[in-house]
Write a structure and sequence with these properties.
There is one protein chain. The chain has helices at 23-56, 58-65, 81-106, 113-137, 156-166, 172-196, 203-221, 227-244, 249-258, 271-295, 302-310, 312-340, 350-359, 365-374, 379-406, 408-419, 436-445, and strands spanning 16-17, 68-69, 79-80, 343-344. Helix 4 packs across helix 6. Mean pLDDT is 85; it is low at 1-12 and 453-462. The protein contains 17 helices and 4 strands. The longest helix has 34 residues, at 23-56. The chain is mainly alpha-helical. The strands form 2 sheets. It has a two-stranded parallel ribbon with strand order 1-4. Strands 2-3 form a two-stranded antiparallel sheet.
């Protein structure tokens, strides 16, 4: 007869926040973050080059930025290099974001409503509070409320680049939360761009773009393969979306969402996962750094930095990134735990979540994009907004670095525990500890008293 638990003790465990990932999810997250980390370092390098170029050789920088290439007919693709980077290369970035989002909802952490609750609420709060703080800062005379969306984005590549540069370790659960948060954040960002920063809609072009998307979906679902077919079709869809007046990056997200991201039969990887694996290095290693090279080149001077903290629009951006993102993400996470009676992973502390929330305030790529979209008729204001994005992101990076360094030794121990593989089978031990076969294999490697592994080869005595 089995013992029954006392009536005053719960028989079910409380849901855990930031718990251990499943092995397939951990493998996917590790591979994705490895590419994004390399891309983040390249992004940092590109931003530094852009700043040096724009401040040392400003005329050369502007000349390259404004150089126009492309046909003017039939779809007005005679764009400057800056526009090609903003509207073209970032479409690749949002294409990968669309695949990530689709995969998260069908096979990742967001497939379960209870698991999706935390990153979704955190992302929504991390978008809403910066927008509110920006609007309050710009509510008076001389304010520019149209830039409310600038401080709402999180740049996962830049954040991971900062972690790589400062040598900080983060457990996989915190990295996965950061990545999932950024995926939801990207979805909100593209919705904001599509709804609030599209104008002069040409419905004939939008209708043809939609027809192209239907064809893209049909060919993919029919199992048609071949980059030589899909790449030209994707370019036509992008060009029509650009012509329609809806921001061209929306086409990238739409095509990413149409890919099948669940496995069928004996597939080791779904088509979406396979395509993401191929395209992600292009996005992280080329598209985003080149965009940063053309977007981050702003003039840095004493007066420019002074304006960041004295004018309403740039000040609202800095406050939104440093305070709004941090408080919004941390507050949303804490409230989720409070009202769902979930418990934090016992290996972590709320201070860890606060540090990650500060890190998520780095809003580089999408914030720079929205800075140009929000103030298209005022280049000086757009430059001040970009400067504020750089300053705000730098402050978030510095504060997060200090907070993470305080716990870095603990993070290193957690990472070593997560990666430990005593039997060398390629599967971390934490996923096999309840397997008797694993315990017997590990026992073979354990030193026994008296053998030559413990006494330097001396004979054991009875």
């Amino acid at each position: 007869m089995t013992d029954q638990p006392p009536v005053n003790q719960p028989t079910t465990r409380r849901r855990q926040l930031l718990g251990r990932l499943s092995l397939p999810e951990r493998t996917y997250i590790t591979d994705a973050l490895r590419t994004e980390t390399v891309g983040g370092v390249l992004l940092l390098i590109a931003a530094v080059i852009a700043l040096i170029w724009a401040n040392v050789w400003p005329h050369a920088y502007e000349s390259v930025l404004d150089h126009t290439i492309g046909p003017s007919a039939p779809l007005h693709l005679d764009l400057t290099l800056g526009d090609w980077a903003k509207d073209g290369l970032l479409t690749i970035f949002f294409f990968v974001a669309g695949i990530e989002l689709k995969r998260e909802f069908v096979a990742g952490e967001l497939r379960s409503p209870s698991a999706a609750l935390l990153p979704v609420i955190a992302a929504v709060c991390g978008v809403a509070l910066p927008a509110i703080l920006f609007a309050l800062t710009n509510s008076g005379s001389g304010g520019h409320p149209g830039g409310w969306a600038i401080p709402t984005a999180t740049d996962i590549a830049f954040a991971l680049g900062v972690l790589a540069v400062v040598g900080s370790h983060l457990p996989s659960a915190l990295r996965a939360f950061l990545l999932t948060l950024a995926v939801v954040d990207d979805l909100i960002a593209i919705l904001i761009i599509a709804i609030f920063y599209s104008s002069g809609i040409k419905f004939w072009a939008l209708g043809l773009a939609f027809a192209g998307l239907v064809l893209f979906w049909f060919l993919h679902r029919r199992g048609v393969h071949g980059w030589y077919l899909f790449v030209p079709l994707a370019f036509v869809i992008w060009a029509l979306m650009h012509e329609s007046g809806v921001h061209a990056t929306v086409a990238g997200v739409a095509m990413g969402l149409m890919l099948r991201c669940h496995r069928e039969g004996d597939e080791q990887h779904s088509p979406g996962e396979h395509i993401e694996h191929l395209v992600r290095p292009l996005s992280a290693g080329l598209a985003v750094p080149v965009f940063a090279l053309f977007a981050a080149g702003v003039t840095i001077s004493g007066s420019a930095l002074r304006e960041v903290f004295t004018q309403a629009a740039p000040l609202g951006i800095v406050i939104g990134l440093l305070v709004g993102k941090t408080v919004g993400i941390f507050g949303g996470t804490w409230l989720t735990a409070r009202f769902t009676r979930a418990e934090l992973n016992p290996q972590l502390k709320w201070a860890d979540m606060f540090a990650v929330s500060v890190l998520a305030g780095i809003g580089f790529t999408v914030s720079l994009l929205i800075s140009e979209l929000a103030f298209p008729g005022d280049l000086a204001l757009a430059d001040r907004a970009k400067t504020a994005v750089l300053v705000g992101s730098l402050l978030c990076a510095l504060v997060a670095t200090v907070l993470l360094k305080l716990r870095n030794r603990h993070y290193r121990e957690l990472c070593e525990e997560e990666d430990r593989d005593l039997d060398g089978d390629g599967i971390p031990d934490v996923y096999q500890q309840d397997d008797p076969a694993w315990r017997s294999r590990v026992a073979e490697f354990a030193p026994h008293p008296g053998d030559d592994r413990t006494d330097g080869g001396a004979e054991s005595s009875r």
